[in-house]
């Protein structure tokens, strides 16, 4: 099913006009009302060029828009701020015609100049965007990245309603990239006025706008009455309460005080919830393009030695870790999840072999073991998973100190290269779009190794990077040769073992009885975790 969605999405995007992909508003939806969402941790930023975590992704997507978008609850592309677009025969020139009359939250009409400014901003090294590498195929990216130019030569304003983007090579993922939060269109004057605080006072064209933000307490979004899509959003507002432990959030949901627990169902309460028919009826399950993994910082001894990285891979008992999360996953043996095109069937990866792991450490001259640190997000079950990892490594002589921190602090340490090991849980990779390239560039490619990037292993192999670039230089994203090439990319990555792939997890969430809208909106594969633009209340 996922392969079909991936291949058909781009075929439709090239072949059909914008109207053919529009979304019909739910006839059962009742406009109005507000909902309450809880999170344990505060929100770090709402700047679309910077924000890149589970918690703020859907908030940013509701505040901003890009040229491309997705049909709600699916991975099917549709035009967003672009009313239509044309693609040259060689797949290197994209001409987008913008919708007329779209205004920012400050009241000013959006134009092609705003699109160019936004793309120049996200790729400018001074912005320190973790998503800059997504735009590497745009002509002029290398010059901007090196500081030789301050704008992308491949982005041209044709007129106020037309933007032309020229690529330096065909890029099978480009339309998906234009649907990422990083490609959101922002108004220059609002960014310049706010400066470094734009992430706390965002201005976009989205369905909701920021109404209030009390750091450490709550964040409130209100309906954009001038939103350019007819009929949505349905809700008048959303309140995100932070500082809420997941167990407390679940109790408040049971008492009717919360509508969706943003951190999901606490694993310790999962079986209790599923054993209660009334509660189980409100549980939403969905597949996801997800891998949970341990990063091994190859720039930090002793993880700069392949034998040590192999030893850690062989020491981890993945089946036991899956038991910690109530069996809601399958063991992973490679970066790609099984439902992703390019996944290598029959690839064994590293088998659980503690004795073999000890032999690898001896090979590296560390037969007596070593001491290291494992960073982990402090929301359950991640500390308990970290403890299981700690026990597995202790069994081969490795003494691990667990550093259990708020999500933002773990992300910061990973981006700065300060963490020898990170358990990615709670921040684990879920595809930004349904293509194998998305599991490489940001988290395993050389472009993601910079300060603030999401390649926390700091792994960089230029020959694999070149193969990845070649794999994306196709006009057909589903070409068998392309997917075979991506399979080889990930096999070569695993040969160097910068990660320990641990599991591929299913998503579970819960909603209050008054929440309406298709279940797919609550496990939306793109507007993670919830597509707020299309859910509604029934009372």
From TrEMBL:
Compartments, as annotated in UniProt: Periplasm
One of the protein's GO biological processes: peptide transport
Signal peptide: 1-20
Keyword Transport annotated: yes
InterPro entries: Peptide/Ni-bd, SBP_5, SBP_5_dom
Key words, A-Z: Signal, Transport
One Gene Ontology cellular component: ATP-binding cassette (ABC) transporter complex
Top-rank lineage group of the source organism: Bacteria
Cited SUPFAM superfamilies: Periplasmic binding protein-like II (SSF53850)
GO molecular function: peptide transmembrane transporter activity
All copies of domain Solute-binding protein family, residue ranges: 76-450
Pfam families: SBP_bac_5
Main subcellular location: periplasm
Stored PANTHER family: OLIGOPEPTIDE-BINDING PROTEIN APPA, PERIPLASMIC BINDING COMPONENT OF ABC TRANSPORTER
Family: Belongs to the bacterial solute-binding protein 5 family.
Protein's name according to its UniProt entry: Peptide/nickel transport system substrate-binding protein
């Amino acid at each position: 099913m996922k392969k079909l969605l991936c291949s058909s999405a781009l075929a439709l995007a090239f072949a059909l006009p914008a109207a053919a992909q529009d979304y019909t508003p739910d006839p059962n939806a009742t406009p109005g009302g507000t909902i309450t969402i809880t999170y344990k941790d505060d929100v770090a930023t709402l700047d679309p060029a910077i924000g890149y975590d589970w918690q703020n992704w859907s908030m940013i997507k509701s505040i901003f828009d890009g040229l491309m978008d997705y049909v709600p609850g699916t991975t099917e592309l549709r035009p967003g701020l672009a009313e239509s677009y044309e693609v040259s025969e060689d797949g290197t020139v994209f001409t987008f015609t913008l919708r007329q009359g779209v205004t920012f939250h400050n009241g000013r009409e959006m134009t092609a100049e705003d699109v160019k400014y936004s793309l120049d901003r996200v790729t400018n090294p001074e912005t320190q965007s973790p998503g800059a590498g997504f735009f590497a195929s745009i002509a002029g990216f290398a010059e901007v990245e090196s500081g030789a130019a301050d704008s992308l030569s491949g982005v041209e304003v044709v007129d106020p309603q037309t933007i032309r983007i020229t690529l330096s090579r065909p890029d099978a993922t480009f339309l998906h990239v234009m649907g990422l939060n990083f490609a959101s269109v922002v108004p220059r004057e609002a960014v310049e006025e706010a400066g470094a605080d734009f992430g706390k006072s965002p201005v976009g064209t989205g369905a909701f706008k920021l109404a209030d933000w009390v750091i450490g307490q709550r964040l409130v979004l209100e309906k954009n009455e001038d939103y350019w899509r007819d009929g949505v959003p349905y809700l008048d507002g959303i309140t995100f309460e932070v500082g809420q432990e997941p167990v407390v959030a679940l109790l408040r949901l049971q008492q009717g005080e919360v509508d969706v627990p943003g951190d999901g169902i606490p694993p310790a309460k999962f079986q209790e919830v599923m054993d209660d028919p009334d509660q189980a009826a409100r549980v939403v399950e969905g597949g996801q393009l997800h891998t949970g993994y341990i990063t091994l910082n190859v720039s930090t001894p002793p993880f700069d030695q392949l034998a040590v990285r192999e030893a850690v891979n062989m020491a981890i008992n993945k089946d036991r870790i899956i038991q910690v999360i109530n069996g809601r996953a399958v063991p992973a043996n490679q970066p790609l999840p099984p439902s992703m095109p390019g996944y290598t069937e029959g690839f064994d990866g590293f088998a659980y072999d503690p004795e073999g792991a000890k032999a690898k450490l001896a090979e590296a001259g560390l037969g007596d073991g070593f001491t290291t640190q494992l960073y982990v997000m402090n929301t359950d079950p991640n500390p308990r998973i970290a403890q299981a990892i700690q026990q597995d490594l202790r069994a081969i002589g490795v003494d691990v100190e667990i550093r259990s921190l708020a999500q933002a602090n773990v992300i910061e340490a990973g981006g700065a290269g300060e963490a020898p090991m990170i358990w990615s849980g709670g921040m684990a990779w879920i595809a930004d779009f349904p293509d194998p390239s998305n599991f490489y560039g940001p988290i395993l490619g050389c472009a993601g190794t910079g300060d603030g990037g999401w390649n926390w292993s700091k792994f960089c192999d230029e020959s694999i990077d070149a193969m990845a670039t070649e794999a994306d230089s196709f006009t057909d994203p589903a070409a068998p040769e392309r997917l075979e090439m991506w399979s080889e990319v990930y096999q070569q990555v695993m040969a160097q073992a910068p990660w320990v792939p641990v599991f591929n997890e299913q998503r579970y969430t819960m909603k209050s009885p008054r929440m309406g809208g298709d279940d797919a909106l609550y496990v939306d594969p793109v507007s993670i975790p919830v597509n707020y633009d299309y859910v509604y209340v029934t009372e």
